[in-house]
Amino acid sequence: MSASLLEVCAWDAEDPLREVAARFVRPEGLIYLDGNSLGAAPVDAYGRLEAAVAGEWAQGLVRSWNGADWIGAPARIGAKIAHLIGARPSEVVVADSTSVNLFKLLVAALQRQAPRGVILSEPGEFPTDLYVAQGVAATLPGVSLRLLPAEELVAAIGADVGVVMLTHVHYRTGARRDMAAITQRAREAGALVIWDLSHSAGAVQVDLAGARAELAVGCGYKYLNGGPGAPAYLYVAERRQAELSSPLTGWMGHDDPFEFGDVYRPAAGMDRFLVGTPPMLSMLALECGVDQFEGVDMAAVEAKARRLCSLFIERVEDRCGGHGLQLITPCAPARRGGHVSFTHPDAYAIMQALIERGVIGDFRGPDVLRCGFAPLYTRFEDVWRAVEVLAEVLNTDAWRDPRYQTRARVT
Amino acid sequence: MSASLLEVCAWDAEDPLREVAARFVRPEGLIYLDGNSLGAAPVDAYGRLEAAVAGEWAQGLVRSWNGADWIGAPARIGAKIAHLIGARPSEVVVADSTSVNLFKLLVAALQRQAPRGVILSEPGEFPTDLYVAQGVAATLPGVSLRLLPAEELVAAIGADVGVVMLTHVHYRTGARRDMAAITQRAREAGALVIWDLSHSAGAVQVDLAGARAELAVGCGYKYLNGGPGAPAYLYVAERRQAELSSPLTGWMGHDDPFEFGDVYRPAAGMDRFLVGTPPMLSMLALECGVDQFEGVDMAAVEAKARRLCSLFIERVEDRCGGHGLQLITPCAPARRGGHVSFTHPDAYAIMQALIERGVIGDFRGPDVLRCGFAPLYTRFEDVWRAVEVLAEVLNTDAWRDPRYQTRARVT
Predict the structure, then answer these.
(1) Whole domain around residue B314: which residue ranges?
(2) What is the pLDDT of residue B408?
(3) Is residue A409 domain-resident?
(4) Three-class SS of residue A401?
(5) Mean pLDDT score of chain A, rounded to an integer?
(6) How far, in Å, are A5, A284, A333, A375, A376 from residue A15 at the CA level?
(7) How far B196 CA sits from the closest chain A CA (Å)?
(8) Residue of A nearest to B245 (CA)
(9) Are the C-beta atoms of B95 and B220 separated by less than 8 Å?
């Protein structure tokens, strides 16, 4: 028997992260289970952007590059993210989008790994990662993308594989991969692994150093709460930085950006992975999002994510049986991230009905209902109540309403 | 004899753009001559960002991708920029940084132009453009960067040249190139030209269609007033879009981004040059900047830029003679953009003395004093008064103060 409302409210009252939830805006009448797609807005974000626009930009103007340390933002925010993912401050910078950062690391890694030109990944991986790999293959001679099912993948790291590219937590199933084991196996086989942390960092404990991971990218606008389309980050272990060259050699990656000479010389450390001038307002919103982790123990985040997901799964089993929902997320807490997915032939319509009733999760085509449980601000009560709404939608056939059947473009 | 204060105040009173200046924040006690580096903040920017953060993000959350049409922003803002540069709405999208966009177009153009692998440019061109070209040369086999002085460049477009890469207005000298003539000469020689409009769009009249230009990139945070590090844009003439493939193939460039399939298919039009999720807060600030051009006749912008620059040059000649300032910007108004540069062996110290006295221009190493005259908000009186401050700094040797001699990192 899964937990009662009374019980889960008691969990909320004892939650070591309960004070943190108050740092986020909570729209009236909404249960938000999509922080894995776009994180909630910190209460502070508005004040930060006000200061950035009305103060730093409007009054400080170009002087704010130094005066407000805009110039230091990529490394400064990178260092704060490093703290959340088990990296050193000097191993992470914020720049561009996840896709662009992945392109940089793929090209840099493959140039180092030549002639090992295969990028190994899995069918159904995060689409933009697969797309970027295809762009790299169309650009670099001798490079190709090979997709193998997860269970065969690790054993298939042959002598032609230069790079293994995987997401740490799968965007669709929520499955969490064993970063340490895969990294070790790849290293033994002479391949580098690029980890995409987009769906794990900020939701669960990530320990890049402990896993001896060497390369990673990640997203700023999901569990890091950086605002819509927030800049992304990349990680390169210190021991690899000097031997990797980004193909995107813009002025911010120059050893001396203010030299204004004709010849590119990459910066010594992670700055070499910077390219153009960063979108500062979005950068500062990201910093505000990351700052919400201040004082937060990532072990507590991990523990809460596990409990939130378990509660959801158990409540759905109890309350929504017989309606054809199939759990595609692993049951073992250590094998999943911060979101849970079920398939259903009418997943789209069911999600539309939920959204109209104030429960926001998302639909991933063709048949996935996905709900994310950002540990910083999701309450156990939210999960409990969301499942009650889902049960009602299923039990009353509310999702069959014709207006839920027409697909709009969704994100 | 150059114009008197009384005369220039009369010019301001008759300026057809005088109402537009009121759309921008004007910090008390400051004469801002650096809109070519970071454009001034529109008065509206603060309200726009407030709505974006407190409304669209905090309350709308993930629903705002459709509800606030975030998803349409790259094309929507691109269409507004198209209007300023003589392009069709379907020929411009906003994405990434100028450097990243240049990388996309260089690789796409060179793949089309193979085996013509030479990128032809000029020594002393905009540094990030040269750096990006070097990164492309290090990535694509058979590609190299060749630098030739401007006067030899056009005649040197040989059979091995795939792409000519030039800025429309030179960041340092302010010289404006003859876009139509160079584009025609390159076309005759079988080369494509990529124009960097960063220092011309928004300051002078740009007519891509009239020049039969095919490829261009440009910056959002200079004369377009998009805020610090605002996203950039790229232009591809309709007749070239289908034949060019970006190497950066992220999900936003997919023909159907919400298909979530494994195989990349580029979108039909300019969307194929999008990559990752755009930094929306910075995007919306850029849109606000671009919106300040509403109702503005670009011919009036061009006319005012010419007159502002001429006034500055004439006043400096009148008031600052004998101090070693050398004009490096062309005198003929049609051959320059919206900024004017002088060299001086002590340019750095002089600019520091100016900044401390509330006149903000910038220094470009090793010896350039650069002042920009953004036509939307710079008044003729500003120019006149700025030159008085410069004359005082020079006549009193104020710049020799030791505290102006130590170079800090500047942008």
Answers:
(1) 5-43+297-404
(2) 62
(3) no
(4) coil
(5) 97
(6) 15, 29, 18, 10, 10
(7) 14
(8) A135
(9) no
Q: Quick one: A185 and A312 in the same domain?
A: no
Same domain, A249 and A304: no
Element (H, E) at A235: strand A232-236
Last residue in a domain, options B228, B263, B291: B291
Rg, C-alpha atoms of chain A: 22
* Separation of alpha carbons B293 and B171, rounded Å: 22
Predicted ipTM > 0.95: yes
The domain that contains B212 carries what CATH number?
A: 3.40.640.10
Both A278 and A304 in a single domain? Answer: no
> Mean per-residue pLDDT for A335-355?
97
Contact B238, B215 (CB under 8 A): no
Cα of A337 to nearest chain B Cα, Å: 20
Say if A405 is an interface residue toward chain B (CB within 8 Å). no
pLDDT in tens, B45-57: 999 999 999 999 9
Residue A362 annotated in active site: no
pTM for this one? 0.98
The per-residue pLDDT for range A82-130, each reduced to its tens digit, is 999 999 999 999 999 999 999 999 999 999 999 999 999 999 999 999 9
Q: Which helix (DSSP H) or strand (DSSP E) does residue B108 occupy? A: helix B98-113
Is residue A222 flagged as an active site residue? yes
- Identify the sign of the CA torsion A28, A31, A37, A40: positive
Q: Are residues B238 and B283 in the same domain?
A: yes
Q: What is the pLDDT of residues B191-231, one digit of tens each?
A: 999 999 999 999 999 999 999 999 999 999 999 999 999 99
B282 close to A (CB below 8 A)? yes
Q: Are residues B113 and B261 in the same domain?
A: yes
Q: Is the pLDDT of residue B60 over 50?
A: yes
